[in-house]
Amino acid sequence: MYPLLKQAQGPYPSLSCCSLLLNHCLSQKSLNCVKIVHAHFLKLGLNTYTYLGNRCLDLYSEFGHINDALKVFDDISHKNSTSWNICLKGLLKSGQPGKACHMFDAMPVRDVVSWNSMISGYASCGYLSHALELFVEMQGTGVRPSGFTFSILMSLVSSSPHAKQIHCRMIRSGVDLDNVVLGNSLINIYGKLGLVEYAFGVIMIMKQFDVISWNSLIWACHSAGHHELALEQFYRMRGAELLPDQFTCSVLMSVCSNLRDLDKGKQHCIQLEDSVRLFKKQDQWDSPLCNSMISSFARHDLGENALQLFVLTLRKNIRPTEYMVSSLLSSVSIFLPVEVGNQIHSLVPKLGFESDAVVANSLVDMYAKFGFIGDALNIFNEMKIKDLVSWNTIMMGLTYYGRVSLTMDLFRELLTREGILPDRITLTAVLLACNYGLLVDEGIKIFSSMEMEFGVKPGEEHYACVVEMLSKAGKLKEAIDIIETMPCRTTSDIWRSILSACAIYGDLQIIEGVAKKIMDRESQTSLPYLVLAQAYQMRGRWDSMVRMRKAVENRGTKEFIGHSWIGIRNNVYTFASNQLQHYGGKDLYLVLNLLVWEMETEGYV
Prior knowledge:
Elements: H1 2-8, H2 15-28, H3 31-44, H4 50-62, H5 66-75, H6 81-93, H7 97-106, H8 112-124, H9 128-140, H10 147-154, H11 160-172, H12 180-192, H13 196-205, H14 211-223, H15 227-239, H16 246-259, H17 262-280, H18 287-299, H19 303-315, H20 322-332, H21 338-351, H22 357-369, H23 373-382, H24 388-400, H25 404-418, H26 424-436, H27 440-454, H28 460-472, H29 476-484, H30 492-505, H31 508-521, H32 527-538, H33 542-555, E1 563-568, E2 571-576, H34 585-602
Antiparallel strand pairs: 1-2
Helix pairs in contact: 1-2, 2-3, 2-4, 4-5, 4-6, 5-6, 6-7, 6-8, 7-8, 8-9, 8-10, 10-12, 12-13, 12-14, 13-14, 14-15, 14-16, 15-16, 16-17, 17-18, 18-19, 18-20, 19-20, 20-21, 20-22, 21-22, 22-23, 22-24, 23-24, 24-25, 24-26, 25-26, 26-27, 26-28, 27-28, 28-29, 28-30, 29-30, 30-31, 31-32, ...
Keywords: Repeat
PPR repeats: 111-145, 210-244, 286-320, 356-390
Organism: Glycine max
């Protein structure tokens, strides 16, 4: 750098020489270097030059030294739109939206970059309504939105009407819908909202598409319950000679699982082995490579492998990404002890991820699954920016651990204070809470208004919640009436909840009818025969009871033995329910009885 400095100290230093000095500072990622070069500019009077001032302004902003950047900005004699935009971005990046707003108001000319910076800055700070208001104001001034403007707006979408409005604005603004990034964003949003037909409409007009395009479409079909359609899109993807990635394989595994198609599932299982083989051949590791492999292990429930690779990643001084930490936390909540999750949690502030919504959501999910609801609530309450995933995660966790009233309070807060429309998962959590708390009237009211009020068409999971809720309340006729109105094919699982309640509330005719429904759908199960045998026995119909008992014996069905897992230090122990006595079962049952008694007194049961 020193020969360049000597040249710059000459009477007439060239702009190219000065630019090379600044490029060197950027390549070295050295703030000290920038300050040295800037000091020479001040000495030579070059600090007033617009081009050089903008370069220094950009570098100071990049290094997070906004005060130095503002001094450079003041020194520039003729500030152009680039000068204002760089300074505006720097203020927003440093978390000073108030000062950025004042600068935005003072700008002599606001181009699309200026508006995009402000909209993006408001969105990143959690001021979603302000971001949307600014977009409306932008259009009123005659500034034409760019593709980046709409990509920002799509990250704020929370409802079907909102998504359609933004899509319509894109068309009216003349934005190129052939843009792959914009097209993928639209497909992804429509998929999240369950608007599969709109997702297809987008991909049909796209002239170019990549793996992400097909992944988004496959996921949209799968999440909406159209599993066969999801497989068709995978075959179309392969026909377009695009290779699937780990996300493709993960979604396809879920699709095959829902279709109960083992053969098709096996075709995609091999992909992980291929990924591991390819990973081992890599001479150099980087963050994206390790991130992809850790997430693959996590998706295939190989938590120990994911953790080991994460440790190796840290030892190689590869900085973890937010997505890597999130993937690792998801594997912890399934197979690894909670102590491992605590250790990963302790890394989050050190890595600067405490304000990242994805990581925070994963932490809430992990603690909720382990039953540490207090910790999950604390993280949720401390989150500065809460998206719908955040609300869904905490509400589902609270519901599963019996905190029904708190779940309902959060649901009302989401609707009234946050103004975010619920999706399928939100309403599943709420209906589960109504089911567990036997809030029949409130549950029916929410279920009946789902499509009209929130734009969410009831799915199988919503019907299952309501049917089980009505069955437990002894309203078997109403439960059966709801099943008969289901638009999708009913499974044996949804009839099981009614059959269980029939043994308590139902008359024999209902029990026989429901039992036949399950027999037709699941011929090997012994449950309907056992329930019928009990019903016949209670009514003194001994011949019918014996016939049902023999039917069970003839099927040769084996008793299902449940398994429990417990993590102690760095090991996970598994034991069957019939092995409990070997582990000091009497003492365990005494403790369990005490826990149940405490839960009852606290109102959780």
